[in-house]
Please model this.
Amino acid sequence: MGGLLKFVVILLGVGWLLGQLVRYFLRTKLAKFAQQVSEMERQQRREQQAQSRPKEGVNVDYIPKTHQEKRKKDIEGGEYVDYEEVKD
Model:
């Protein structure tokens, strides 16, 4: 009878110890995971803010068709610009 009681006490002790270890490791892993998730959310927020922030310079939402056609001709044909070489 004494051997069985000793076995049950040891079994309960080992079970309790394993439970404590599992709880500790789960807590640390969950904390790391939560930290990674929060960092990812911060990164996404930064990217969204950067995208929503207006860019420097002029933002043109509409270009009239006549201007587009003229611009296309300028790009295709080009325009000769006379220049002089300047020696230092």
Notes: The radius of gyration is 36 Å. The chain has a mean pLDDT of 82. The chain is about 75% helix and 0% strand.
